[in-house]
Amino acid sequence: MVYLTRKAEFSASHYYHNPAFTPEENRRIFGKCNNPNGHGHNYTLEVTVKGEVDPRSGFVVDLKQLKEIMHREVLDAMDHRFLNKEVPEFFTQIPTTENLAIACWQRLQSKLETAKLYRVRVYETPDLFVDFYGEL
Amino acid sequence: MIAHLTRRYRFSSSHRLDSAEMSAAENLATYGKCNNPHGHGHNYALEVTVSGHVDPATGMVCNLVDLDGFVEKEVLSRYHLENLNTLQEFAQLVPTTENLSVEIYEILQRGFNKAHLDGVRLEETMLNSFEYTGEEAKEKLPCP
After folding, report:
1. Mutation to test the A interface, candidates B55, B60, B67, most A Cβ within 10 Å
2. DSSP letter (8 states) at residue A21
């Protein structure tokens, strides 16, 4: 079994707000992230797939296909977007790094054919990242 | 849904590696330059990984303000710009980065209750890093 990781970058804005909370609660829980005009990050996405090495190609996965899937499913939807307003998952969920990692996993999982998705890692900054392994 | 969140922190400390159980010659042979009696320092980078169910109300495993506050108060303020050898925990224990990783893990394990502690990873330099996930851990990585 070999694990392969492909990296991609995207830039997006977001803010944290739960309509069920009062304005005061939103400010207390989310702090500056509650600014309704949003703020942005340069995100790094790392997608790790696992699989046996195909004896004919020597590949776990065709990197070209993996790259295309990542672009189509994640980057085209999220790069240079306001996540709360333009990405459907975040019409109802708060676009934290946790939820972003889960959304990336859900967008990618069913599209991968040969290799199995092992981990999605999303860096919000170089000092903060979230790993999601599909655990329910 | 269970997510694993890692936060990275930095602190700088000095230390000297010298074991009371070894002779002077043995210490020098074992620790080399790190045995210099006057000590030396590092810029450490600490990664703390916690995990848990993502709270649907906040979208969070735990509020970063809580994690940052705890690490600042209990870890960074204790070790940043200090000589590790002068601290109580290293009175009998050589302040290697292995031992420092375990100490920091224990501080978090004892006091941080807002999420499950997966483990800590400590970089002594850009070339050396150490991970500790507790005595019971069978697997190195905190994942299925």
Report:
1. B60
2. S
For A26, the closest chain B residue by CA position comes to B58
pLDDT digits (tens, 9 = 90+) for A75-85: 999 999 999 99
Two tokens, residue B86:
């002068």
Contacts of B121 in chain A (CB under 8 A): none
Give B50: exposed, middle or buried? Use CB within 10 Å, 0-12, 13-18, 19+: buried
Q: Provide the 8-state DSSP code for A71.
A: I
ipTM of the complex: 0.93
CATH class of B2-132: alpha beta
pLDDT digits (tens, 9 = 90+) for B40-88: 999 999 999 999 999 999 999 999 999 999 999 999 999 999 999 999 9
Query: What are chain A's domains?
Result: 2-132 (3.30.479.10)
Tell me if A130 and B61 make a contact (CB, 8 A cut-off).
Answer: yes
* Chain A nearest-CA residue for B1: A136
- What residues in B contact A102, CB-CB < 8 Å? 1, 3, 54
DSSP string over B1-43: -EEEEEEEEEEEEEE----TTS-HHHHHHHHGGGG-TT-EEEE
B3/A102 Cβ within 8 A: yes
